Amino acid sequence: MFKKTFWVPYEDSTNYPTLDKTMDAITKYCEENGSACTFTGDDEVEIDGIKYEIYRGYETGSRGNYGIKCKEK
Predict the structure, then answer these.
(1) What is the pTM of this model?
(2) Do residues 8 and 66 make contact, with C-beta atoms less than 8 angstroms apart?
(3) What does the alpha-carbon distance between residue 23 and residue 25 come to, in Å, rounded to a whole number?
């Protein structure tokens, strides 16, 4: 019923995250949290065996800043 969703820290939040920046941010996030990640598509990543959909866009409540969100599939 409820799917896990989390925002990945993205330092340059005033600029739209490109695919390369998105992959770098998610990889860094996983390394810092001791998780393994594999990108299975441009908008899909598998973290510790769980597939997530990647959303790049406005972060809710952030007054126009961009963010990277991963939502469990």
Answers:
(1) 0.89
(2) no
(3) 5
Place of tokens 């866009």: 57
The label of the residue with tokens 């390394």 reads 31
- List strands edge to edge, sheet with 66-72: 5-8, 66-72, 50-58, 44-47, 37-41
List the structure tokens of 42.
């441009």
Residue 6, token pair as written in the block: 């989390």
pLDDT tens for 4-54 read 999 998 888 889 999 999 999 999 999 999 999 999 999 999 999 999 999
Distance CA 55, CA 43 (A): 7
**End-to-end distance of the chain based on CA atoms, in angstroms?**
11
d(CA 6, CA 60): 12
